[in-house]
What does this fold into?
Amino acid sequence: MSQEGVTMLGERLRAARRIASLSQEEVGRRTGVSAMAISKYERDLLTPDGERLVKLSEALGVAVTELLRPPSDLTLQPLSYRWHPLKRRSVRAAAAAQARVAEWLERYSTLEELLGDTILTSVSDLRAAVGAPSDPERAALDLRHYWHIGDDAIESVVDVLEDNGIRVLAVPNAAPMNACCYLFDTDRAAIAVSRTLADNESLCPGDRQRFSLAHELGHLVLGPDGPVKEKEAVADRFAAAFLVPAASARRELGGRRTEIAVAELALLKRKYGLSMQAWLRRAAELGILSPTAAKAGLREARAAGRQRVEPVEIPFEEPQRLRRLALRAWAEGIITESRAVELSGCSRRLFRSMRIDAPSAIHARACA
It folds into this structure.
């Protein structure tokens, strides 16, 4: 094996192990070698033979061809992790999330380059479009106008982000992380969001996902400066303003209220994809409800068991652009089916079903 091949193999092995959240000892036990040997493989001090390479691919859950792919020059910087406040931040979880995002972005960029279909939106452009980064309400409105989405309800936050050059990844399980935004290639943006909740590992409701995506968008647009607690509060305010602009909230609720009926909150949640509890907080921060009235509404929600499960279900939004790019590249004969399966992250069975069955393509979970 050439020196170039050895180098790329070590990098791929280390990334695959991190994605799988395995230690070197665990990989060693699965493949019948010592942790020291795994360490040497990853540092390119030792080269596994063909039989051992197959065992490594099986232990890590990746194809041998994936391990032998050429190295990438992609740079990746996490900008803001959202960790569950009751969960201790895990170094292994952070490394696994970042390795997964880097590998996914690499495949994504490869498909864009093959098709000549790269949306060149920079974070600098987004920040320049925002006139008052210290004012999250104004910043959210400026960005909506920059993207020409007006003041109405957003049907799909994922579609808006993907259409405007922000890559979105739905990670199967990233606990204790809820979501994270990344800069890659210095000035381009990606957001990863977990399909499961960090507190109880149940499926993430669509309204929670939408708010997390908008929150991470706030970090991208408003920048990383300031104390952590303050940054999180500002990003929350940006997210609420992005999903429900002040003018829309006042149009829906009126100028001043003493109470908002549960049924009204449910209908507003269905229309805007913002949780009923978030609507109460939004009404309070805009002065439509008094803080006392909002707190009373939130207490009532807790007493009725609506704090964890609300009566209106908002579906989880599936990122689709990567899947479309893979299907397009295959349909145009640019890549083989095997290469399309590899780059899309889908199983061969799912990719084939999407090719021949439109409903399965529409309703299938996005490939990661």
